[in-house]
Structure formats: C-alpha cells, structure tokens
Amino acid sequence: MSDQPRTVALLGSTGSIGTQAIDVIDRNPGSFDVTAIAAGGSDPDLVVAQARATGARLVAVARADAVAEIARDLPGVEVVGGADAVVAAAACGADVVLNGITGSVGLRPTLAALDAGSTLALANKESLVAGGALVKQAVQRPDQIVPVDSEHSALAQALRGGTAAEVRRLVVTASGGAFRGRTRDQLAHVTAADALQHPTWDMGPVVTINSASMVNKALEVIEAHLLFDVPMDRIEVVVHAQSVIHSMVEFVDGSTLAQASPPDMRLPIALGLGWPHRVPDAAPACDWTQAATWTFEPLDEGAFPAVSVARQAVAASALHPAVFNAANEECVQAFVAGSLPFLGIVDTVRRVVEEYDAPSELSLEAVDEAERWARARAAALIG
Fold it and tell me: Model-level pTM?
C-alpha cells in the first residue's frame, strides 16, 4: 500500500460489516482515512459516535427525520438525509467505497461508486445480483470491484493461482446454516428464532435467515458467475460445516486451490479495503498446533432447492435474478412475521420466478419494475 492513507466511504456503517470495517481501520492507524459514513439512521447516537471515532466529514442517513439530531451533535460535519443520501456518500469520490448495505436497495450506491471511479469493496451481493449487466457495464477498470463476501474473497485469492483459461470450476462452500443436515420434512415447522441460530457466523437477521434457506448461497453462486465470468454450470456448492475453507478453485490439471482461515469477516473486509495488498493482522490465522477435522458433503437440493432456482433464474433472462432476490426479500419478511412457513420461502420464490415474463429492455428502470412486480406477486401468493 502507498504511504498515503486510502480514503474510505462506509455504507451500512452501523451494520455487521460496517462495524467490523471500523474495527479493521482502527487497528491500522495511518492506512485508511474514513471520509464518509452512511447508515439507516435508526440509531442516531451510534451514527454520531462512529462519525466522531472515524473523523468522517460526510454523514448520510436514510431517515431524513434523524438529520437535525445528528447534525446538532456533529458541528462542522456535513449531514444529509433521505432516500438518496447513501448515493451521495457512495459518489463522494473516496478511493474505496465499502458497500455493506443489505438488500437490493444497495444497487444505486453500487452504480454511483463505480461511476465515481472508486474501488468498490462489495459486501452487498444483492446489488450485483439485481443489477447484473448494468453493474458490469459501469465498471471502468479491472479489479474495480473487490468482493467482500468471504466466499468470493476466497475465490479472488485462489484465482491468482492460474489464468482464466486454466479454471475448470469454482467450488463455493456453505456452512449449511442453522438447518444443516435436516430433511425437507424436518423443516416444515421451524421458526424464525430457529433460523437465526447460525452455527458459525455472526451476521444480520436477513442474511442469517437466507443462510438457513440456502438463498444466501444461491445469491453467491449468481454473484460468482457475474464477478468471475464463469458459467453457472461450472460453479458448484459443497457443504463445509466448519467454515474454514471459504471456497476453492479447481484447475484443468486437477489441482484445487483453497483459501483457509477461521470464520472472521474482518479478513475479507481488510482485503476489500486494501486490495491488492494484505492488511497485517486483519484477523487470527488457523492454529496448526491444534488437531482439527474439516468435512465436506454435497448440497441436498431436495431439502434446499434455492440454488437450483437461482440457476433457473439466470438461464431465463438478465432480469430474472432481480425477481428472484426481490421475491425472497418479501418472503423473508413474511416468514419473520409468521405469515409464511419456512419452506414457503423458496417455494414462493420459485413460483414468482417461473411466472415472470421479462421485457427485452435492460435498464435501471426495468430492474425497478421487475422488483416491484416480484414483491407484489410474492405478497399476493403469500396473501
């Protein structure tokens, strides 16, 4: 890394990714300079504390009614609010924009960061899934998007071991979530509280439930396809309960490169902030003085069909992945509210994907309309 600190904008600063990013930055003084933070604004005191701790000069909150309170406590700091505030933070021209927002609402900030020429450290997989070709068209240079999901960070690292022509397939690992090993019948009556008990990762509620349903892995397969230009039929999922091998690349000569580290998101976050350089002591390494066993097993797509539905969506059209994601967001809300059973999440998403008739045009407005239709259709099916 250069002698000058990298300027950083943190989107979703109060969430799991954002708070861990601030920890990485705090432990590497002189390496990073936080110029902007963006959050929902439901916890104004935390936003103020983060702005003071990081020295951010721009604070963006989605809740416009929180602006006055935050601005009062941050004299000399520019505070903006409303639906477009996070886009302003994304477009601020920072060297690195870390998009840690949850959901497809992160699409416009993703496009704004790319348009501004910033390196995009992408933890918001939904924006790439929903935006697809639009996001790829906005990329101005190689490596402008650096993945922050642990699986895609692992793939990016392993892909350094060979040329694109030498890659046979990508192997994306999955912890199996809260319901690893259960049959479809055993999933009929699980609750949201059950789904939130992830065995290895500490994540936000939406991502944790998506992990339980394997929708998170389905989104990651789509993301890997888009990030690395590898066809969907050459991306496989394997269940690895220990979450130490984060993903693997198999090459044409039979060699497989795997990236291993204890389950700690600070490592891929640090790589996203420092890419292509590594940040010293970002996270603990594997302890080779202790005996350990790593297991791998195929995904049971009968019990967890989300990945197969994702493959169906990608094959259908460029807009079907946006429909897949939006329908799932609606279904997860219904599941948490108790109005949809767990198995109904992916079953409903499959129906919405199968019913969608995509227009020929691909634009931001078309993505918005596809998402609106998917949410409305999912709500009607749940109804």
Answer: 0.93
